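Late entry, evening session. Most of the bench is empty. Finally got around to the prediction I had been postponing all week. Sequence below, unchanged from the version circulated by S.P.
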Amino acid sequence: MGSLILEAKNLYKSFGAVQALKNVSFEVAPAEIHCLVGENGSGKSTFVKTVAGVHPPDSGEIILNGNSYPKVNVREAIKEGIQVIYQDLSLFPSMTVAENIATNRMIAENRRFINWKEIREIAAKQLERIGVSLDLDEAVENLSVANRQLVAICRALSLDAKLIFMDEPTTALTKTEVDRLLNIVLDLKSKGISVVFISHKLDEVMEVADLVSIFRDGEKVGDFPSSEVNEKMLVYHMTGRKVEYPRYNRTYKDDTPVLEVKNLTSNGKYEDVSFTVRKGDILGLTGLLGAGRTELALTLFGLNPQDSGKIILEGKERKFTTPYQAIKSGISLVPENRQTQGCYMNKSITDNVAAPILDRMANGGGVLNVNKMKEHAEDTVKTLRVVTAGISTELQNLSGGNQQKVVLGKWIGTNPKVLILDSPTVGVDVGSKEEIYQHIQKFAAQGTAVILISDEIPEILANCNKLIVMKKGKVVGRLESDDLNVADVRDRIHALMDSN
């Protein structure tokens, strides 16, 4: 195997009173796929940024290719072949594929002038290394998330990467795209390049890992050969407890429809979609990216115009042109991207949960009642078990799972008749995911009609009592409660998504 590429020894790192890393040691050998797992707030991101030179450690030692760095900086880490592909990919959207892949190399080499022919040659060579063909002149903003991911990998390779950290690389990918990415990761290993794969999706971790390291509360719990552990063992070590996702069974007695969607069409986005949701239903909407699920949700929330069809809420036809109309009528939406669409990251928990119900938070003269806002925030934090120092905490200082709980609480606070959840656990760890599922199921059991949009089949099967499968804007399959309990249900769902 040769000498280690990375050897971190006894790293400590704190931010104010928060101890983010506690005596963490970590090794990566050449040609190794090393998976790093842990709940949100366990220290994974801080560790990666520390060994990559973004955050200097308070103490400890970082050894890269045999060279010791008490406090490595970013330039030194890159020189040693350390590359990080963050979850947002850090690409330049308006620049071409070739420019994104090769420009950083030009900068690293202190080039005074750009050689455009060489940029194309560098980019073409790196794409060839991973066996992928992309249009070098295409702007990155026009690419799918999966292809942007490939551009980021090629950029890392152009800088002679020996070790690539990939932070949640499969979050927005379809199953086919995930399989392609995992094959590329295995191919990188065969070429002598190591990968540290950070993911909440433990089934993917187990598929490619040589070694799995588990972090919890800023400490490394241990290193485990992938052949010696399974998903349940990983979850237990990550959380310190047994985590289960109980199946939801609708028990609500009233079968009166709350929401009826009839032949709904939004030109170019989806067409002829029909379904009914009753009190206590959790209707799943699944399908590959581009299926039209999110666009459908946006129509129901007044953010995407309908061109034909009907939306019937409690027996009355409605047509929503603004979110305000939808909210007042009893429809709420937890959007797919909590950070850019679902909350105010630089505002407090109090401000966030009060935002959609300011009229209820005001006194008779229209002035906001601060005490009422605080009381509502305290109730939300208690009900959803948000882990926080207090209700004045800004959301940017919460873990992903706790941010999502606040967003969920924000919309539950509107007392909706219909609650639409678009990918509610993306980037959320297994422990927080279990809690979010409990809240969703409890809310449905109390009589709310819930629509759950997800591309995670286990999530659908755990929470939904009926399911619609969409592809390219059309409904291609429907499964009722009994259908969701058959042994081959996952194969049936994938077959529907892959159908022509």
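Two things to note before I forget:
Residues 6-239 form a domain with the Rossmann fold fold (CATH 3.40.50.300).
The CA atoms of residues 334 and 408 lie 7 Å apart.
Will write this up properly tomorrow.
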